[in-house]
Amino acid sequence: MLLYKDKTKSAEKRAEHLLGLMTLEEKVGQLVQPFGWQTYEYKDGAVTLTESFKEQVKNGGVGSLYGVLRADPWTGVTLENGLSAKEGAEAVNQIQRYAVEHSRLGIPILIGEECSHGHMAIDGTVFPVPLLLGSTWNVELYRDMCRAVAAETRAQGGAVTYSPVLDVVRDPRWGRTEECFSEDPYLIGEFAAAAVQGLQGERLDSDGSVAATLKHFAGYGSSEGGRNAGPVHMGWRELLEVDLYPFKKAVEAGAASIMPAYNEIDGVPCTVNTELLEEVLRKQWGFDGLVITDCGAIDMLAAGHDVAEDGLDASVQAIEAGIDMEMSGEMFGRYLLEALHQGRLNVEVLDRAVLRVLTLKFKLGLFDNPYVDPERAERVIGSEEHVGLARKLAEEGIVLLKNENGALPLDDRSGKIAVIGPNADAGYNQLGDYTSPQPPEKVATVLKGIRARLAKESERVLYAPGCRIKGDDREGFEYALACAKQADTVVMVVGGSSARDFGEGTIDLRTGASKVSDNSWNDMDCGEGIDRMTLGLAGVQLELMQEIHKLGKRFIVVYINGRPIAEPWIDEHADAILEAWYPGQEGGHAVAGILFGDVNPSGRLTVSVPKHVGQLPVYYNGKRSRGKRYLEEDSKARYPFGYGLSYTTFGYDRLKITKDSIGAGESAIVSVDVTNTGSMAGAEVVQLYISDVVSKASRPLMELKGFAKVELAPGETKTVSFEIGKEQLQYIGRDLEPVVEPGLFQVHIGRNVNDTLSTSLTVREDG
């Protein structure tokens, strides 16, 4: 038996042996990742592999495939021509079988899939977007979700996912805000570690684990002007302390893969940033996994960043800087052999990358078990358990921003309810970007959720779309006003959309009915590549709301959106406001549960919501020196970081700290009693913040350093404790090394960054 086929040997030993048997063509083949949906044709219920794919396998092989099962307008895969859960598994088996049986060395293919909030394939469960997941402040529940996503993906043969997204949000005009957990690096770091643990499980080679790919490394959320992939202006100290912190936590958790960002930092594109990819990632952090580019990133070096003369130069720069695999594979596949023959690339550099690819494949168990069970895929994907988890996450991540005079919850005697707005019954609008096509019956919109909640009295529920997300068409105003006049309560469901053009036609604004049109209407105002200049509602949504408000009805607003909305009129005039982000396929049931008090809202903001776009940036952990106000308005957020209301009330008292003075290597325990002082059971998010009073490098006024979500019955008290030591007190000093400086610290515990109790802690000089 050849050593690389011996299961008893380590992944590293097997990879080294296999590398020694490979030709240059076979080595280069391992570094390319063509688009997977282009490798087969599906017709009359049968999958046929394309001749171009077969040729590529025979002429050196294919290391990886991207998005074999991805379905969306970009791929052209629809509900009609796409593969079901079982068919997808069978197709991947067919692809793998051809690669194993028709390549000289029988090397299996690494199948990579998008799974930001669920496997982006037909039949996959659509969970809420990461912005809502972060708003749950429930790391354990998110870890459970990652286990579910891994199980669904691996059941179809996907072995690596391009998630989690660990970018720190700095400008919410950025269209990819929805893909991020927060503006706070500590909170992102907690979710980052949970993602790795959940996705990768205890063993990468289990049938329910996939390799996690951390992205986008790094600074991607701090682009100039909030424009996607724009340049980043950031010093190394801030980069290490803020944007790299979540990545470091995920690497420490064992992440198997990482993806550099499109952007440049201080003039150096991340794709060729050796200081990031080699000095920090590999030497300082000890990362030994795979580095893969984002799609088209190497092309950008020669046509965009203009730091390379041509494609060959760009390919050599990338692989020398530490890139192991290219998503799309166009540049590596075209130029690496030529670079080797011209002497512009050393074979040792090529071997280094190939060895990392092969090692990951062995760790994933692909050589020993390259095939999956289609029957299992059918059972696991979209299971009732996973759907229930999607609903639970949505319930915990929806944030109650306002509740004037107990407008919520509604009760069964609330009379007629008019559900009005472009997002009231638009399924795709509540799913977010990176979502596969969905049959209408699978997605519970807010209208469907309310009707299901009032199943026996559904005639109490009236509906009108009123308008679209974008555009100035007011044709639906009259019908919406007529519905609202008949109602006792109006639920306005407005916001944004990250739905790409799924060809679903449009709706009749006068009736809300779907209608087929030669030109479907695209309401997309958020998502990748969709950045905005403002944070207000698009189109005539605000105007519709103002007209309906004149009727004097109870006025409830539900936002379905992917970035914070700044609308002062709504903040002032709405009786209650729910921020639901993009809550996934079960979002409508979750919203209805909260509206009627079946669920007590416990979501808390992980991004600050400004009063006006002109206040940006408003992230809470900015520097003390950034100023107090503008001429027109102060610089404070409308709704601060950590904010969120409940249907009950919570009291904080008896803040204690075990020591008021510690050495730099010691720790203290701070605790507080939290009591449910209301009449309804609920969950409170207890938040710990630290303020470094005097430091050699300027610091934020407050920084999140701990949190706990606590369930409390009415009248119940629980003591919540946090340890404060090196991890909570250190920062990146002027020498770019972590340091705990002696001096005074303020310790804050409370319900949001602006509402805390505080005590003091002194760190003594060593010795």
Structure write-up:
- It comes from Paenibacillus albilobatus.
- One of its GO terms (molecular function) is beta-glucosidase activity.
- It contains 22 helices and 30 strands.
- With 767 residues, the chain is of the alpha/beta class.
- Strand 6 (160-161), helix 7 (185-200) and strand 7 form a beta-alpha-beta unit.
- The mean pLDDT is 96.
- Helices cover 29% and strands 19% of the residues.
- Among the domains are: 398-626, 3-Layer(aba) Sandwich (Rossmann fold), CATH 3.40.50; 650-763, Immunoglobulins (Immunoglobulin-like).
- The termini are far apart.
- Helix 4 (85-102) packs antiparallel against helix 15, helix 6 packs antiparallel against helix 16 (384-397) and helix 12 (311-321) packs across helix 13 (330-341).
- Largest β-sheet summary: 6 strands, parallel
The CATH architecture of the domain at 398-626 comes to 3-Layer(aba) Sandwich
Helix content: 25-40%
Radius of gyration: 26 Å
Superfamily (CATH H level) name of the domain at 398-626 = Glycoside hydrolase family 3 C-terminal domain
Pfam family, one: Glyco_hydro_3
Family: Belongs to the glycosyl hydrolase 3 family.
GO molecular function: beta-glucosidase activity
Domain Fibronectin type III-like: 684-753
Short description:
With 767 residues, the chain is an alpha/beta fold. It has 22 helices and 30 strands.
